[in-house]
User: Fold this.
Amino acid sequence: MKKVLSIVAIAATMLIISCGPSAEDKAKIDKEVADSIANEEAMLMELETQKAQAMQDSLASIEKMKADSLAADSVAKAGMKKK
Assistant:
């Protein structure tokens, strides 16, 4: 009876151990996680770059509008002086 219980216990232990992920599976999962993190960081960097570019474009647009407004005011004042 002890031998049967010992064999069953060893078989159960081996079965439990064999059900877990293999070293290859663990390495594959680790690589997928690392790739996912790298992709996320790259995406965040791209968003930050786009945000900075949008800010620069907005500031350039504001400066252009100011310059156009000043030019229009100058033309209007010059037209008033001629009359």
